[in-house]
């Protein structure tokens, strides 16, 4: 998600589909982006229960953040092999 008033910041929400069998969890990645709009640096990754991830995402949409897929593609896809920060 991107906020037009806060250029340079992007949040990526996604979940691990394998976690749905037990304790569902998701990830929230905060990205710093270049002036020309491309993702540059993942500043922070949070691992949270899936219900909290969905609540944060919903609250951000209600407060004016816009869903965007142009930066990181499908929000449900991620490389779960990568180490978590």
Describe the overall structure:
The structure is a single chain. By secondary structure, this protein is α+β, with helices and mostly antiparallel strands. The protein has a domain at 9-62. The protein contains one helix and three strands; from the N terminus they run βββα. A three-stranded antiparallel beta sheet has the order 1-2-3. β2 and β3 (39-49) form a beta hairpin. The longest helix has 13 residues, at 50-62. The chain is globular.
Keyphrases for this structure?
disordered C terminus; 1 helix; 85 residues; alpha+beta; three-stranded antiparallel beta sheet
In short:
With 85 residues, the chain is α+β, with helices and mostly antiparallel strands.
List the helices and strands and how they pair.
Layout: E1 9-15, E2 25-33, E3 39-49, H1 50-62
Major sheet attributes: 3 strands, antiparallel
Task: Note the run of SSEs as H and E.
Answer: EEEH
Computed over alpha carbons, the radius of gyration is 13 Å
Number of helix segments? Answer: 1
């Amino acid at each position: 998600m991107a906020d037009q008033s806060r250029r340079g910041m992007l949040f990526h929400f996604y979940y691990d589909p394998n976690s749905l069998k037990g304790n569902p969890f998701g990830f929230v990645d905060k990205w710093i982006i270049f002036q020309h709009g491309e993702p540059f640096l993942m500043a922070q990754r949070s691992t949270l229960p899936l219900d909290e991830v969905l609540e944060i995402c919903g609250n951000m949409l209600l407060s004016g953040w816009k869903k965007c897929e142009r930066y990181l593609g499908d929000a449900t896809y991620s490389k779960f092999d990568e180490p978590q920060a």
